[in-house]
Amino acid sequence: MALHTERLDLPSGLDRAEIRRFVINVFLDELPGDINESQRYEYIVEECENRDIIIARQTQLNKGMDFRIQFRDIYFQGRTRRTRSPSHQHIVEDLTEKKNYDEAAYALLAEKITSIYNCENDSQITEDLRSLDLPVGYLLPEEVCLTLKWLFIEQDITYWGYSGRAKLYNYLVSCELL
User: Which of 19, 58, 59, 94 is most enclosed, with most CB atoms within 10 A?
Assistant: First the structure.
């Protein structure tokens, strides 16, 4: 198995359709596997203050353009074993802990999640999140927000003809987290 590690930097100012197209075009440049060797890719997509966020391809679900969001140094409890990939439920638990810890600080985090959902420029968002004091949950505010960014992108790629990112966003709203 060949493992390729690359950076994937999204240009600023893209709407959700342009983001989807950009990411898919990066995936289309991947080398094909063959009977003797598979090709795996890890893309460093965010450099947070304490750790990187990575998207990994190929996935177990084999949906073509699908990817997993993961961390090298954090493990989340899965159904039967630990995983480096946070699930939607891990994100909900993390956000719930942060909201219960400090609702005023959490309000800023929720605002930044909505900004990322709306594809607004995230350079200022990241700076604002680094100053938030919400030391509970699995991830720092910056990490959970940027993980959601890539979960939204993954949902847009996988479910474009349906609700895309809106399904996850509306789930967060139904959990009273936004």
Answer: 94
User: Who contacts 176 (Cβ-Cβ below 8 Å, separation ≥6)?
Assistant: none
- In tens, the pLDDT along 43-62 reads 999 999 899 999 998 776 65
39-47 vs 52-57, strand pairing mode: antiparallel
Nearest CA to 119 out of 85, 53, 164 is that of: 164
Give dist(CA 133, CA 29) in Å, integer.
40
pLDDT for 15-36, tens place per residue? 999 999 999 999 999 988 889 9
The pTM of the whole model exceeds 0.70 = yes
Torsion of CA 118, 123, 127, 133, to 10 degrees: 30
Preceding peptide of 39 cis, ω within 30°: no
Q: How far apart are CA 18 and CA 84, in angstroms?
A: 28
Residue partners of 32: CB distance under 8 A and separation at least 6: 39
Q: Are 24 and 33 in contact (CB under 8 A)?
A: no
Token code pair at residue 31: 């080398």
Q: Could you tell me where the DSSP H helices lie in 66-164?
A: 88-101, 103-117, 123-130, 141-158
